[in-house]
Queue: 4 jobs
Job 1
Amino acid sequence: MRAPFFLFLISCIGVAVALLLPGWSDLLLVAVPMAVAAAVLIARRPRIAPRRRPPPRQPRTGPPVILDGSNVMYWKTDSPDLAPVRDVIATLMAHGLSPSVIFDANAGYLLYGKYWHDNDFAAALNLPDGRVTVVDKGTPADPLILQTARKTGARIVTNDRYRDWLDQFPEARKRGHLIRGGYRNGPLWLDLPKPQV
């Protein structure tokens, strides 16, 4: 689409010459319509969308693990903090696991004073969209966490015992289904099984 720009430039030069040099005023009869036509072509040219970068490659995923985000964000202090969630995600990934996070609807308000959507948390945690869920207002996250773990065969990172849900989800009683964790004298610990040698 360089031709319309070239024509517009030439016609503008023609108009300037016709106005500045005596005896060249007839050039206006050609240069002005040519400038208008080139301007119309430029205005109507199709907009070319910027090239999209290909989506980042997803790392190879290991066995799924679900974080109870609203529980984990209190592991470091009595105040909600996203840092423990980031620490747990990094530790799980280092162990070859594939973490997803589920938050209560009020998690954004507790952390930042406003509602945060799934993609807001995904960006803050450097996780792909779809790996973070914020439940709807008025819906408890616990049953969704337990149901998702059941569907995907995932274990759950939490210090919650889900006592209110054990009748519906008896697998939460099984040893190793719930991964406990926290901070002892500084560093994070997770009750992960030792790798087999």
Job 2
Amino acid sequence: MNRKSHMTCLIGISTLLVSACSQTENMAKPVVAATDTIQTQATVIAINRPEREVVLRGQDGTTMGYALDERVRNFDQIEVGDVVTAQYYESIAIAVEPATGKPTIKDTSSDQRAPLGDKPEANNLRIRELTAMVEDIDYSNRLVTLRGPSGQIRKVKVGPDVTNLEAVRRGDQVRVRHTEAIAVAVTE
């Protein structure tokens, strides 16, 4: 999967996630969702092949050196003057819903690298989804006590942007889905 289709897939996931959150919101339980995408480019200005190191100059003129391990396939294809483009995507969605079981945590990830012989390219997608049980609510101070997957208890201050806190009840479940993706590619 190339970088463009990978990022398109991530945006599609985000759209589905926000859509699902909107449906939950219609049930009057609180939902919060946010996404952000950052793209940056840098130019390769020096290469130390024996040490697998590159020096990049960013768009703002700053330079940074990187040691690249064997996971960077096709290192020998990198040349001075190549442009490195990195895209970072992050989303988080938090929804309160009726409990469906014990608190859980689930991690999913996928990695992709460039085919042999191509310029280096890599994509990484990580999704962490966890649920926690609402143990107690202090409505006047906007504090919710949650019990996580391993039994830990945490008090969370709920911000003023959550306008329907009164819909949350003891025994509800809080679902948090955090998605991160990075796509990095070297182009001529």
Job 3
Amino acid sequence: MGIRLTPKDPRFFDLFGASARHLVDAAGELTALLGASAEERELILKRVHEIEASSGEATHTIIREVGGSFVTPFDRADMHALAVQLDGCVGLIEAAVDLIVLYRVDEVLPRVAKQVEVIARMAELTADAMPRLRSMKGLTAYWAEVSRLESRANKQYRRMLAELFNTPKLDPITVMKHKDIIDALEAAANGFEAVALKVEAIAVRES
């Protein structure tokens, strides 16, 4: 049996955990947005911008700590990439919120709520997985479930596209607005899968 020479500095795992909590916060605001009034939507948008800014600061903190540490729990490039991808997911959720609010879409497509539910679940799974990077154990179920959810999101995305383009009497501008929104939600779901794949790759290399 090999002996690991790199210490498991708990500081980094705490930082990744804190970073991932921004995903849960952003997904919670996205969920709240669907049933919000016009005034409430503006407040939600402001909160999401604040979450995204905090997420960016958390990412820069991780990158600084990685750069300033003599040893790291796992490969520096992997740590950098994971930090950036977590932040990227927050940005993708922010983009979806931006579009819904700025486009002044009073009613989203019927399946959007289901898509948001999937994204919120992905956020929770990702946040729950980060502490397990410490031992690299118990992560298989995480990336398997995220992959399953991403496949479900893809199917819902295609159905939403079909329903959108098959709905009569929708003017082209309205179609464009709805398509941008469902594209943004699809991008967010794909972003979570990218994080899960990165975690899987890290676990394989560190096992």
Job 4
Amino acid sequence: MADTIQFDLVSPERKLASVSATEVQIPGSEGDLTAMAGHAATILTIRPGVLTVKGANGEEQFVVIGGFAEVAADSVSVLAEMALPRGEMSQEVVSELVAQATKTHDEAHPDEHHATEKFLADLVHLADDMGFHSNLG
């Protein structure tokens, strides 16, 4: 089997994963990143998206909303602001997230509008990709 890395995913609510993985695909705010054994050390911020972990037990997917990922040659640790297994994503969760992001954008200082608008756009894109309605537009 190919070289593996230790993958850990936690959110404030729970530990979602601690597995040996061959690759981890991370939705980074500056672009997606695939981490594998031997990857250069880096830290990245996470945008709303689907994080995919591949390993001996197949593929697992998690919806992540914000947070940070620390990548090292032998491990990937993700500290997500919010995360859940893809199968737990629902229209109710999407609607709540979009409503919160819309409120944050509407109340943001003008200097923060670009960042809050990008976050909201990423959420809407995620919802659309997963087949949910964003209730915008």
